[in-house]
Model the fold of this input.
Amino acid sequence: MKRESKLIAKGESVNQLYRTFFQLQKYGAKKAKELRLTQKGIEKIILEGR
Done:
């Protein structure tokens, strides 16, 4: 099941962010780049959310 969320909800848990990131890696780098999700990007979102 493909998940194509371009925005991450503020209420989404850290674990969910990482699950989404690693699921995207399974679909390939092109998909991950398209959604602009990187590990550093996720960490930035986490820090901004606190």
Q: What stands out?
A: The two ends are 30 Å apart (CA to CA). The first helix runs from residue 14 to 27.
